[in-house]
Q: What sequence folds into this?
């Protein structure tokens, strides 16, 4: 089960979505995970009324080396509304964008490694993660990590249109601990949090827009 909380830029509100799911590797292709979603919930009463329609959603996740997520596919039931679909999609994408890719070479407890990946969104960023294997019990790994995100350029694409703003200042960092089950391909425990801010400039440089950003993900 994953719980994702994404802060709304410019406000103290956050959208929280709790998504129970069952994951299993495909019998034919070990880089493919098959996902079944249970009853998704949210403390937002309006959204929560729409989320039960997402129960039974079939999904697939393609992974690369080190179980790094590559592509997510969702097939919601026909009766699911657009808001519910978007909320679940954002919840899963947020959780996967903060996942820890494992080394492809043999490691032991105490091993440290660094990974980088580019995440495309309104602001496209390079995410750098420094991880340490703190425990290993059977098929379960416990990983502690810190992360930092930096924009690849100064372009901020306004969602829903073709207009852009200029990023004049940007910060985003986070960290946490996750437990990964090698037989399931996804975390089975742990919590992580990212916080940050950005300053965006439009036609009038004297009136910048300052936004606080943040997200948290809990696996259990």
A:
């Amino acid at each position: 089960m994953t719980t994702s909380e994404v802060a709304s830029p410019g406000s103290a509100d956050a959208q929280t979505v709790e998504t129970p799911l069952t994951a299993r590797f495909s019998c034919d292709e070990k880089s493919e995970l098959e996902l079944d979603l249970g009853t998704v919930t949210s403390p937002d009463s309006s959204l929560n009324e729409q989320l039960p329609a997402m129960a039974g959603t079939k999904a697939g996740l393609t992974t690369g080396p080190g179980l790094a997520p590559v592509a997510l596919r969702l097939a919601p039931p026909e009766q699911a509304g657009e808001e519910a679909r978007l909320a679940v999609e954002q919840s899963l994408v947020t959780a996967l964008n903060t996942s820890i890719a494992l080394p492809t070479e043999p490691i032991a407890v105490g091993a440290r490694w660094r990974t980088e990946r580019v995440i495309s969104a309104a602001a496209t960023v390079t995410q750098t993660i420094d991880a340490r294997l703190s425990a290993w019990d059977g098929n379960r790994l416990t990983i502690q990590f810190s992360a930092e995100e930096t924009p690849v350029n100064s372009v901020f694409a306004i969602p829903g249109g073709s207009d852009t703003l200029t990023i004049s200042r940007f910060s985003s960092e986070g960290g946490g601990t996750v437990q990964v089950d090698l037989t399931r391909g996804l975390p089975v425990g742990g919590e992580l949090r990212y916080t940050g801010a950005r300053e965006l400039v439009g036609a009038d440089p004297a009136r910048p827009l300052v936004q606080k950003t943040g997200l948290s993900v809990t696996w259990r």
The mean pLDDT is 92. The two ends are 5 Å apart (CA to CA). Residues 127 and 149 are 4 Å apart (CA to CA).
